[in-house]
Amino acid sequence: MDQINIYSADEIISRIIVEDGIEALDACLEPYAAVYVVMDSNVAMQCPAAYELSQMLNRRGVPGMLLEVSEEAKSMETVMDICGWLLDNGADRDALVLAVGGGITTDMVGFAASLYKRGVRFAYVPTTLLAQVDAAIGGKTGVNFGGYKNMLGTIRQPEFTYICPQVLESLPMEAFQAGASEMLKTFIIEDNDNYRPAVQLLAELASEFIAAAEGNTYSYSMEKWPEILSERLSELTPFIAAAAKVKAGVVSRDQFEGGERRKLNLGHTFGHAIEALAHKQHNDIDHGHAVALGMVYAARLAENLGMAEEGFATMIEKDLDSCLLLVMSPYGVREMADAMGKDKKAEGGKVHFVLPRAVGDVVIHDMTVEEVVALLA
Ligand SMILES: NC(=O)c1ccc[n+]([C@@H]2O[C@H](COP(=O)([O-])OP(=O)(O)OC[C@H]3O[C@@H](n4cnc5c(N)ncnc54)[C@H](O)[C@@H]3O)[C@@H](O)[C@H]2O)c1
After folding, report:
1. Intervals of CATH 3.40.50.1970 along the chain
2. What is the pTM of this model?
């Protein structure tokens, strides 16, 4: 069992446990007298490890609520439904609310728990790669509001995040790719010699996926994906733990995003703009693809500012492409500029751009969108 801690000053405020299999979760729940579980309904139906988890919770007599997840349902109404369910089931101040699902589930359940009775304890079992390396770590909770993503929310730490890589065996390829993009983002922020071997593994997985499609249909290789991933899961696990450790370190140093934590937005300013434009035109683009494109733009910007060596952006582009994470950009820089200015992280006319100077070396650079357009267009 790998344990990674998140600290505030010298105090442990949250624990991340990386463990093969779901059994060890039982011991993690032992100290809590009353546990309430809220689970993504797709996970409950499709994920064998979650079935095992449900049986363990049934033996403990834990009441459960199923959530239908979507960005549309990531709303205050759903949070109130969760609070109503907790109330109906007699959850008290000593309750532990356990969220089992991807980032939508953990964000909403964390938010509901931080509101219910002025805040009860909560913990996560993240079931997507994105949630394991990012969303379920660091305490940001929230829902979409007023047409903006994650506009309402809190920063409050889960008691623990239990990462069991086996839950990923039922995760669809597109959802996996979103997490792969965030994982590589994490290693571009802080490398610790993980970036290159992680690209290598993800590229090999992508090649196996393409090979399965040859002579077959695309949906055939989609069906084969769980098998392809399962066989390489043990090689992926150390990278999941390493990425979780990087995020835990950043959050320990800057829990409330006063500075360093902004680095985690690498690729997201461009990425959010691309996602927002695509959504408006009813032509949605996957989060992972949008972030990957965003990282290439950020690398190009760093290069054009003379911060990164010539050829750096092309290297990042080729790496992401080899992992099947890159699509052609549907928008020019000018089109993205307006959407970037509207990003909620824009302050005083300037946007905090996260620029990679090299793998493992990123800086926050405040620029107006006009300056960005002039450098990239
Ligand atoms: N709090 C944070 O710091 C933070 C950071 C990044 C992203 N987020 C949020 O995370 C959300 C995205 O989360 P996500 O990408 O983890 O996924 P998700 O919760 O949107 O789930 C993606 C899809 O996969 C399904 N699914 C989840 N686990 C599965 C499994 N093991 N087997 C089969 N199907 C499964 C879900 O039902 C859903 O259909 C966004 O709303 C984003 O805003 C939060």
Report:
1. 2-170
2. 0.96
